[in-house]
Amino acid sequence: MIGIDLSRNRPEEMAGHELRIVNYFTERMMKMETQDCLKAIDVANPNVGMLEMAPEEAGMKIERLPFTVRLATNEEELAKAVSIRHQAYARHVPALAQSLTQAEPYDFEKGTVVLLAESKLDGSPLGTMRIQTNAHKKLTLEQSVVLPDWLQGASLAEATRLGIAEGRMGRIVKTALFKAYFEFCQSSGIEWMVITARAPLDRQYAALLFRDVFGVGEYIPMRHVGNIPHRVLAFEIGSAKARWAAVNHPLLNFMCGTHHPDISISSDGVFSPRLEIGLPNQSIHAIA
After folding, report:
1. Under DSSP, is residue 158 helix (H, G, I), strand (E, B) or coil?
2. The dihedral of CA 6, 170, 89, 262: what is its sign?
3. 182-233: per-residue pLDDT in tens?
4. Which DSSP symbol is given to 213?
5. Which DSSP category does 90 fall into?
């Protein structure tokens, strides 16, 4: 079985072929769109299988990533997530970023988790996302809109505060965070993902086959985010694989045909202590 475990290796300690694979992978991410980035996993080094390992349980192949995605479960991890969140919004929504210098009350609520992507090479934060379910209270977006009847009474999960660090791995980190969101919903019995997205970022979700909750392409001012117009979109978990397969979606194999051990999501643990967090100086860009 051929694979790469970067968690115990610094660059100077890595075997030559493994270092070449990681360098190739990260260089390709800078130049390619998300769907093409995923193809790079299969073509980078056919002699050693790139990041792909031998197929195992459930007939799924296993791929290792140069980073991990997991729940923030301690102060250090939440601090990393908050630093990315703040700087992401500082670049694109400065007025809102002023209120994001510390962890938010939503981060500690029941039914809410914060995801953190971290580099295996040096532990630096690469991305974050917050997921809030409606198991204990209404979604944040419901401060601004009343959801239609077909979502009333359904189990929902809203993704917010999504930000990705600038750099080579940005596109694949964003895709891995989305897969973590999807897997969290599956394991938690969530029926629908629901998100709000401003233009042009809403097109990314439409490409993933999210559907408009209100009028097609309709943007609604969101009171809870400074009345900035957002499109409200939803995605049904149970029919995801069939819908992606029907259109031969480029992410089908990544999402449903591949196991990524480095994406480790459990719906049981939720981080709860309140913190005041300092913000390290990093260059971050906002995704939503």
Report:
1. strand
2. negative
3. 999 999 999 999 999 999 889 999 999 999 999 999 999 999 888 889 999 9
4. S
5. H
Is 176 exposed, middle or buried, given 0-12, 13-18 or 19+ CB atoms closer than 10 A?
A: buried
* Residue corresponding to tokens 């991890």: 77
Longest dimension (CA), the chain: 57
Give the pLDDT confidence score for residue 97 in this predicted structure: 63
Q: What is the DSSP letter of 143?
A: G
Residue 256: predicted pLDDT: 95
CA atoms of 31 and 186, how far apart (whole Å): 32
Q: How many angstroms separate the CA atoms of 124 and 173, rounded? A: 13
Residues 236, 210: contact at Cβ < 8 Å?
Answer: no
Q: Which of 133, 187, 198, 171 is nearest to 254 (CA)?
A: 171
φ/ψ of 129, rounded to 5, equals -155, 145
Q: 133: how many CB neighbours lie within 10 A of its CB?
A: 22
Least Cα distance to 156 among 174, 173, 136, 170 occurs for: 136
pTM of the shown model: 0.74
In contact, 40 and 29? CB cutoff 8 Å: yes
The structure tokens listed for 227 are: 């009345």
Q: 64-105: per-residue pLDDT in tens? A: 999 999 999 998 999 999 988 877 777 667 666 666 768 888
Separation of alpha carbons 68 and 126, rounded Å: 9
CB neighbourhood size of 65 (10 A): 21
Mean pLDDT, the chain, integer: 78
